[in-house]
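Let's practice the habit of predicting before peeking. Look at the sequence and jot down your guess about where helices and strands might fall. Then scroll down.
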Amino acid sequence: MVAPVASCQNHPQREAIGICVQCRVRICSECTTKVEGINYCVSCLAGLAVEGGRRASRSQADRGTATPYLEAAGWAAVLALCLWLTLEVLLPGA
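Done guessing? Here is the structure:
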């Protein structure tokens, strides 16, 4: 007797080669995408992409207000050091 073969959730005529780690459905080679060696089905992978996009936009929005001030402070410090170095070179004993 031959053991039954697990079929793909989306393609019942195809043999499943893996299981999506998020929703646990069986998927064939066409329906699976490996991310860092982990199987994802198409719908779960799309959900991860949407969630990743939301996370990225939130982090950009969070740092959007403070970044210009920090950048300006950094440039002011660099200019102050350049001015100090120039004065030390031009007027060493002053």
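How did you do? Residues 1-63 form one domain.
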